[in-house]
Amino acid sequence: MTLTPATPPGSAPAGTLIATIGPPGAGKTTWRRQFLATTPATVVSLDELRARFSPCGCSADHSVNQVATAHGLRITHQALQTGGTVVWDTTAASYPARASMLACAAAHHARTIAVVILPPLIHALRRNARRDNRTCRTCARARRVPDHRIWAMHTHITAALPALHREGWHEIHLHDLPPYIRQPNQHAA
To answer: Is this entry keyworded Ion transport (predicted)?
Structure first.
């Protein structure tokens, strides 16, 4: 396992699963777009899959999470089976979400890279505040995530950081960590 601070994987070897880990508003989709500018990969965006499977077309419709995730895992299996690179653009805030991706990668002996994007909470909240807050009449959800959910995910991911390496990732890349979380190459003053 390699732990590297603030260095994105410039290119990924064939048969690689890359998963973003971060709360809503962290910049995961921005990172994904920048990565794809230099590295071809299959993208599995849980937001985009929810929009595809939701009767109302909303990316925030969590009633279709199970179907969207299962479809994303099928896409991942197909891409890894042919030695491709897959980028999951999702919060992956819980261990079960990460474990399902890791199991899929393990079935294909694929390399795994976790890209933790965890800016200070206030930054994620500010970015999220710019999202549309209108509630869908069908699924009763808005694109903007409630602040308390972002806070909870940020807290959960922060708490998971010390043990993340034990989950089975080959590499862990850290981005935008808050100043109160020291990176491995930093020393206390």
So the answer is: no
Identify whether 182 is part of a domain: no
Cβ–Cβ < 8 Å for 105, 98: no
Distance CA 1, CA 57 (A): 39
Q: Is the pTM of this model over 0.90?
A: no
Q: Per-residue pLDDT tens for 128-144?
A: 899 877 777 877 776 77
Beta strands, E only, 32-136: 42-45, 85-89, 111-117
CATH classification at residue 122: 3.40.50.300
Assigned domain for 180 exists? no
Three-point CA angle 91, 92, 94, nearest 5° = 120
Q: Confidence class of residue 18 from pLDDT cuts 50, 70 and 90?
A: very high
d(CA 17, CA 64): 23
144-183 pLDDT per residue, tens: 788 999 999 999 999 999 999 999 999 999 988 777 775 5
Task: Return contacts of 32-39, CB within 8 angstroms, 24+ apart.
Answer: 32/87, 32/89, 34/8, 35/8, 35/9, 35/87, 36/87, 38/10, 38/11, 39/9, 39/10, 39/11, 39/12, 39/85
